[in-house]
Design brief:
Helix content is 88%, strand content 0%. It has three helices and no strands.
């Protein structure tokens, strides 16, 4: 049983490292994907702009 758990952990770590490496190597695609999937609500954008401009 411990060998089964260890092999599962190793497989999970390899999968995690592979996924991270592919995202780092394709940084432009990652940026485009996050830009299209992430939006700021209008009220929050207005508050942020006012807050930023008031600080200088």
């Amino acid at each position: 049983m411990p060998a089964f758990v260890t092999s599962g952990r190793v497989l999970f770590a390899v999968l995690f490292i592979y996924t991270g490496a592919t995202k780092l190597l394709g940084i432009q695609q990652t940026a485009d994907s996050s830009r299209s999937n992430f939006s700021i609500p209008k009220a929050l954008a207005l508050w942020s702009a006012r807050s930023h401009s008031s600080r200088g």
